[in-house]
Amino acid sequence: MSVGWDIVVFLHLVAMAFFVGGQLLVGLSVPVLRSDPETLRAVARRFGYGSLVALAVLAVTGAALASHEHLWDNSTLHLKIGLVALLVVLTVAHLRYPNAHALQGAILVMTLAVVWLGIRVAG
């Protein structure tokens, strides 16, 4: 792979790390920050904005990588894309119902499944 494609992979992985890492951080911080709801909202809001950027980077770099590697016929990639679509729906629902903690748990589990499938596609 050329340096240009190495940069695309790097950006994809950094965006994924931000998205997943932020979910873990916020998810693990919620019990601690419940006593300070204002701080919790501020942390969640900032992570939310960063997550939107990370998702955009993931979509662009993921599509570029799938095209470059000729993976559009890969059934694992299809499953991954389907889970990403479901992840977007769950995220929008969570924005609408921020106190639905089950949605946040489902988003985290779904995100980890997408990461796992990404490893399977790339492997």
Structural account:
The mean pLDDT is 88. The protein has helices spanning 3-33, 37-68, 75-96, 101-122. Helix 1 runs antiparallel to helix 2. The protein has 123 residues and is an all-alpha fold. The protein has one domain. Helix content is 87%, strand content 0%.
Overall number of structural domains = 1
Number of helices: 4
Low-confidence stretches: none
Q: Could you tell me the mean pLDDT? A: 88
Q: How many angstroms separate the termini? A: 15 Å
Based on the model shown, name its key terms.
mainly alpha, 123 residues
Which helices and strands, and how do they pair?
Blueprint: H1 3-33, H2 37-68, H3 75-96, H4 101-122
Question: Short description, anyone?
Answer:
This protein has helices spanning 3-33, 37-68, 75-96, 101-122. It has 123 residues and is mostly helical.
